[in-house]
Amino acid sequence: MEDDEKVSFCERILSDLDNIFKRDANILEFDIIESVDSICNKSPVIYVDHNLALEKWCIPHLYDYANKKIVAFKNNSQRSDLYMIHQLTRIMLFINPDLTTAWNLRRVVVNNNVQTHLDDLKLTELVLLRKPKCASLFNYREWLLNSLFQINKTISFQLVDHELVVTLNAASRYARNYYAWSHRAWIFTFYLTNTNNSQYINKKIIEDLQITESWIESHVSDYSCFQHRQFLFGTLFGYGMIPSISAIVSEQSKIEILLNEFKFLNSLFRLYPEQESLFLHRRALLHSARRWCPDKLELLRQSEIEFYKKHICPSLIESPVQRIKSWSDEIQQRYLAYLKRNLNWTFDN
What we know:
Elements: H1 3-23, E1 29-33, E2 45-48, E3 51-55, H2 59-75, H3 82-95, H4 100-111, H5 117-130, H6 135-152, H7 157-173, H8 178-193, H9 198-216, H10 223-236, H11 251-271, H12 276-292, H13 297-318, H14 327-343
Parallel strand pairs: 1-3
Antiparallel strand pairs: 2-3
Helix pairs in contact: 1-2, 2-3, 3-4, 4-6, 5-6, 6-8, 7-8, 8-10, 9-10, 10-12, 11-13, 12-14
GO molecular function: protein prenyltransferase activity
InterPro entries: Prenyl_trans_a
Keywords: Prenyltransferase, Repeat, Transferase
């Protein structure tokens, strides 16, 4: 493809995409698809029922064109055509969401009111559908929310609730999505830091423990979610965030919630005895409990003795000494060694 022809071709694609976004504010999905009969003189833009796609054969030409334009823009001190940068960065991020330069230019676009913060939050949701595990994208969403707060001096409940839905969807689309769960924890931290509505955020913490409990039942190996639950427990007990939140829930209720977590782990252990994530989560909770509720350690110890007698001890007795250890045996022994080494807990028969 000749240079002039390529420029004209790429500009036509950008124009077609821009017209679609202007006509339809409810685009559901963007994707890049294979084309059986790739014909270079027809438009590679496909738009059906609020779903948008580009044929794969045009991507190298479009990406190269957009990249050269962006480099030229960065070298231009006046930076006049911001709407063009909005179009270019939009398509570049659909193709490659890990491009930090493009995200930085989006900040310029938003700061100059070419796009609103809410429009860009919606745009990044489309990008998340293609690449749900992207650190730069979540960092950009955090910047958008921070900027919105600086402008409005408040954060709406609806925005917080929606952001929690976005992170859970991203975590569901990509296993062990540490970036999504870290962003979810950031939402709680950010809201706690910038609001006096302790009652609401406490309600959301309890609610999130319930939501993630249901989520873990079908993603039991996803330790990133368990780490998020550890963060929620730490917040509930008043560590790592604003301590005043802890005062809303009674100490008795906190202990009951913590004990229920161990019961929940016991129920999962019966189904997944070889999942190391269950033991790692137990260890993390017990380790933190020394700080959260040191006066309740004996109660937790009794709970662990019951777990040991019901689930671990029978398997150790039934296993012949000569038998090669299974992975389940190994992680159980590691757990018992941890309890002895760090808590000085031993469970004698």
